[in-house]
Amino acid sequence: MSIQYIALTEATAVNFLKEIGLLNEDERATVSEIGDGNLNYVFNIFSQTTGRSFIVKQALPYAKVVGESWPLTLDRARIEASVLQLAAKYVPNLVPKVFHHDQTLALTVMENLSDFTILREGLITGNLYPQVASHIGIYLAEILFRTSTFHLHPKEAKELAVDFINPDLCDITERLVFTDPFFDSETNSFDDHLKPLVHELWSDNKLKREVAKLKHLFLTKSEALIHGDIHTGSIFVTKDETKIIDPEFAFYGPKAFDIGTFFANLIMNYYAQEGQASNSIEKEQQQSYLIQTLIDTWKVFETTYTELWKNESKESFTKVDGHLEDVLATIWTESVGFAGAEMIRRMIGLAHVKDVDSIQELAIRQSVQQTIIQVARTFITERHSIKDMDSLIQQVKVVYV
After folding, report:
1. How far is CA 256 from the centre of its chain?
2. What domains sit in the chain, N to C, each tagged with a CATH number?
3. Closest Cα partner for 382 from 213, 207, 204?
4. Using one digit for the tens of pLDDT, what is the confidence trace for 43-84?
5. Which helix (H) or strand (E) holds 57?
6. Phi-psi domain of 351 (left: phi exceeds 0; alpha: psi -120 through 50; beta: other)
7. For residues 108 and 248, is the Cβ–Cβ distance under 8 A?
8. Which residues of the chain have pLDDT under 70?
9. Distance (Å, rounded) from C-alpha 258 to C-alpha 88?
């Protein structure tokens, strides 16, 4: 075992697995560093001797996307492993198995999902995943309900909230999602053709007042243990299976944030199909699938949450008529607003989405970007008028790229 932090290499990653007994000393293994994220090293290790395989994920003490000038706590590795282990109690089939966690090295050894596809990549190439909506809806309902005070005693929930305090990663979200895109910040990154629209956003006082409210919710609403970054790049899929990964941004926050973030990434892919689909038939098929996935995700979430509310609640007020409906309505409205914030930040902030950025034809990419920003703007400023999924879908289709 390690006595001090040191960044692994491909060779030392294999040696570590042998040291903790997940590989035998005489096993031959292939290893490759596959991390394409912004914060970590990720090693894919395959035993040529037994056929066993593992993922070793190690947190870096800084944001890889920026460099050592942006230091980060290594404690996020503990948070990630702890979230996956907690989620495994309720939805074991929807998260990767955790085999080992090393606090000092800030690394976690997990189930290898090499046979899975990153959902974002699959959607870009036009694949359909019929189980995703059901799986994500169940995951969201189970975790967001069971870690809230509707299920836990308030003391227990507060103790968990302390365990998952995550200031460094929350700071990234607070800045890159809720602040920088709405001001002339050096972290912003966007194509020149978007400058007029971006400057319009920066001078839109109504929009900024509403974003300020959403930011305040994110900062202060400690409702449940949220994933904090549940987009299509943090979901692995096959036709039949779904695995939610990378919960290192997790903390006790507003339930709606996870839902809104997931919705936003489906919607961005919906628009991106204009430049990704190979023909009009494929585009229509993929967009119809994405709309249905939105519908089904919310329906499954709402149904599962309601069942948990009725059968698993330990809060006396859950017996009060209309309280559940009030809670779900609030989650819905906040989800719409958070979706808008996620969409805008992905167009003009530091971290974009491949769905849009990989569109080759400039005119189409420009149209998609502008549409996403305008629809997101509506989501934020008019979220209280977008009462249900039908209303949201109508807004998605208002501006057709």
Report:
1. 12
2. 10-15+29-111 (3.30.200.20), 117-398 (3.90.1200.10)
3. 207
4. 999 999 999 999 999 999 987 666 667 788 999 999 999 999
5. strand 53-59
6. beta
7. no
8. 1-3, 36-38, 64-68, 399-401
9. 18
